[in-house]
Amino acid sequence: MTFKALLATKTGVVVSTTLVNFDEADLMPGDVTVAIDYSTVNYKDAMAISGKGPVIRQFPLIPGIDFSGIVQASSHAGFAVGDRVVANGWGLSQTHHGGFAQKARVSGDWLVKLPEVFSTRDAMAIGTAGYTAMLSVLALEHAGVTPDKGDVLVTGASGGAGSIAIALLSHLGYRVVASTGRLDETDYLLALGASEVIDRRTLSEPGAPIARERWAGAIDSVGSHTLANVLAQTCYRGAVAAFGLAQGVDLPGSVLPFILRNVTLAGIDSVNAPQALRLRAWARLASDLDLGKLSHATRVIGLAEVPGLAGSVLRGEVRGRTVVDVNA
Fold first, then answer.
1. Global pTM value
2. What does the mean pLDDT of the chain come to?
3. Surface-to-core class of residue 186, CB atoms within 10 Å of its CB (0-12 exposed, 13-18 middle, 19+ buried)
4. Of the CATH numbers 3.40.50.720, 3.40.30.10, 3.40.50.10190, 3.40.109.10, which one belongs to the domain with range 128-267?
5. Rounded to whole angstroms, how far apart are CA atoms 183 and 37?
6. What's the rounded mean pLDDT across residues 64-77?
7. For 24-164, where are the E strands, in sequence order?
């Protein structure tokens, strides 16, 4: 029995992807088989299918770091046929076939039952980007950054994680400052809930080791000089949740924000987050995410269109979330 899948192969150093008919018998081991409805294109997906980063660790492999769909078969005690589920991270698109296909077979321990408020399309409009944004909000809350403490900055604001972070934070009562390299998206960011939009160039160049306090917290998807400057301008006892490397993997800053202002830098890992935290994040998304804003930030493409989008994602040219209808 075959199904449609996007298969990544590697010749020398060149990674290429082809739409193929994949045999269900060739799926990897797992105790739950899912009929996939939707996947999505995240920054990590773009790195994987373009070969710009060592995401895929064995070839050939079906990429796609997340998916949503309906359980088709299960020997896992926690899932029954017909359950609506979502998967984010774990080994998907690294060592295990991922979501750019019409079927997946995975460990039930990797799955989360979808909250009733979300359709499977909503689940991938959120995707790993939105789930990571929620983990970041939880980290800020854990560090004591409440709306009364001051502004919260979101870098990479017009991207997927940034867009959903703005929607979540504004719903929770925070005043959000959005940093973007695409000032033509100002109206879009204001509609999501940002109160102020700033040019990313004010943060992306080398800066002082410590500077004027500007925000109580921040969610950063950029890294490098941007993250260093964000930390340098974070208020006393503030916190920064960091999960991205769009500008670079380096952190050319100093210890001064930590030892003079007691700033917390919280690293956010969405790939191997424990199940209890995943469940909490999805429950909070169900209660705190405005579905109207989510729809405003989302577009849908077909599976065959995914490879052509990678370059635009890596260049920061794609606004919001891109959902992949694998059955289109």
1. 0.94
2. 96
3. middle
4. 3.40.50.720
5. 34
6. 98
7. 32-40, 66-74, 84-88, 103-106, 111-113, 152-154
